[in-house]
Amino acid sequence: MKTQEKHEFKSEIKQLLHIMIHSLYSNKEIFVRELISNASDAIDKLRFKSITSEEIHKNFSNGCITIYINKEKNTLTISDNGIGMTRQEIIDNLGTIAKSGTKDFINSLMNDKKTDNQLIGQFGVGFYSSFIVSEKVLVRTRAATNLSEEGIQWESSGQGEYTIHNIVKKEQGTEIILYLKKEEKEFLDIWKIKNIIKKYSDHISVPIKIFNFDEQKKTGTWEQINKATALWTLNKTEIKIEEYQEFYKHITNDFNKPLIWSHNHVEGNQEYISLLYIPEKSAWDLWNRENKHGLKLYVKRIFIMDDASQFLPNYLRFVRGLIDSNDLPLNISREILQDNHIIQKLRRSLTKRVLNMLTTLATNDPEKYKIFWNQFGLVLKEGPAEDSINKNEIANLLRFSSLNSNNSEQHMSLVDYIQNMKTEQDKIYYITSDSYAAASSSPHLEFFKKHNINVLLLFDRIDEWMMNYITEFQGKKFQSISKDDESLNKLVKKNNQIDKNVEENINDFIKKVKTILKDQVKDVRITYRLIDTPSIVLTDTNEMTTQMAKLFSAAGQNIPPIKYIFEINPNHILIKKIMNVNDSIIFNEWIQLLLEQALLAEKGNLDNPNQFINRINLLLSH
User: Per CATH, is 497-621 categorized as 3.30.1520.10?
Assistant: First the structure.
């Protein structure tokens, strides 16, 4: 046998323990929930392992979690007969945080003490909550794959190091012995522990038993304190709202209640049960590409795997829950999941179910849908590009800020937009930009503001990409107001009194501007879209937009420069002044300045800002 080994905690664990022990977990009882949840997972993993291992199957017994209180020694022991751990697994699991984003996690804890309950369970470090109530913790474990009676004991007081040594352990599984601090003796009260289990872990599908000792009779009995029935297998009418909510917290380690859920038993060509939840808050690492997501997979009530991402498309990665199939083989692997035809059918069905759930929420409870959209709207916007089959359903769920709303909140649906369109309007108008401020102040909006025509304001980075995949909604096509469009030009002319004399007088001016700018622009022409701005640039109908060019450029791709259409407002006082400039050099400077102004408004930057500044200084001093 190996002698005792002393190990230093990784630096992030030292930080974590210090934060947790000194400033977190005002709700200390959560440590019971975390340890019970870990024990339940260990039993689920062993049950799955027994399917593929004949040796383990032969020694497999029904899972059980036990709780033992010893008031004399001031200890609370939580045991399971699950998968157990090897020496290396103990070092890997209890000596470091293996999950990516550790620094971000610890920073979140340090910067916002209110997030302790939400983050600790989500990050999978709930075991360390033991040290909030304990002065010392012992972990005694034997891996199910180890058929000898040799186990491992891990011990630490949470002060920066831990020890490991071999022990004799007849039963597989893990027991955690907490030596409670003097001020935490309330957790030696059997009724306290029973109430905590009822509150947080009643739905755990394996029995949880506590040892009752009768002082008078000097005998003890094991009492089961949870229902030990897989909640999802019950009829919906038998399940209380609070039970659904607690089960969600159990499978997700989220301390917030879910926003909504859908529980369905399906029979026929496919037999499965699904229990799908929409969280109230997004996971802190939702945008971490290494973050695993997906549903828990059960086959015939047997746990198979966590994070089975094949059952839902990536744009629905915020959905949590489980699926229990009667049609899949017990030995299914992640590789087989990729191409299995049953999985493809289940994916289509579950995707429809989630979208229907969201549609119902948006229709029946707009305020709750606002909460959903503020948390997950950006993720849902990935949908049109990823899921062409359900593109219309996704479009119906999208929400936008608009010109008429006068704020950046994205609460307007496309249905609402169409219902309030002007009689003469035949397209859905929108503009994309880097920010709400840039979008709402764009000179492209001047005509629309004057005539009270609403425009959707899109300012999230993904919006330009998304609009490439949504070309129309309910028979109405989308039109970017920063692109050339004949129907839009007709609408502008219809709503403006065109002065023929002005047009005739400006024709020579336009010719001179074309001569000066030459290949710098695609075309030069007058416009009646503008009210307070002398000129703007547009992209041609079939050319890449400014925002799309920015996306490609940010991704490191080389793109050819955009040739803009340069439009001039003949009614603007500055244009009228420039038309009367006789000095050809100064006239040229004015035209270049007008173009640079328009490019700056469109792109947010210039290739040569110093040249722009020098030009302004020259004209101001002239």
Answer: no
